[in-house]
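Fold this sequence, please.
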Amino acid sequence: MKPTLYSFWRSSAAFRVRIALNLKGIEYDVIPVHLRKGGGEQLKDVYQVLNPNGLVPLYIDAGLTLHQSAAIIEFLEEKYPTPTLLPTRVEDRAWVRGLAQDIAADIHPLNNLRVLRYLVGKLGVSDEARLGWYNHWLEKGLIALEKRLSNDPRVGQFCYGDQPGMADAFLVPQVFNAYDAKISFSNYPTLQRITYNCMQLPAFLNASWEHQIDAEGKNPEPS
């Protein structure tokens, strides 16, 4: 049986895993979980039995159930080592993992849907203030990524060299979120260049918003 991925078309965490699966050439089935409809299908009992933290993605492979995008991608890398998503040298693997965590740990959690809902619903933050919060943490993270990637000799067509890998799988979904938020990329030429290169590849294009079975819109465009 094919592995199963519980996903939402706009979820950046699920997007990462879709990219990794595609880069590995793994066929999989998608079960959509709508994060907005009816207050969020991820909060329903039927889904929380599978994933108590009520988030996507959730990956099931031969009876093994995995959550958290980074853990799923590391699992895929170990189970299906070719093509590799990480460099050969241990020092470079650590550097790539650091780039992934810059996004997964420092940017994404502050802008996650449930955080934004809490700001508005529980704390009474205005829509203007919510947008200010979102843009502040997003741009702070993008600035750091741009500085790091624009000055490191390991960067090539992609985050590491000329083969797409783990860092790119984390970067592109975050850039999509920034595009959707109408963030100007005039200050992030390296991030935009790498994203453009990635989006020329079927693995990234087929994992993108508009190509999902539950898609409700097109891919965002850079401002």
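The CA atoms of residues 116 and 130 lie 7 Å apart. The longest strand covers residues 4-7.
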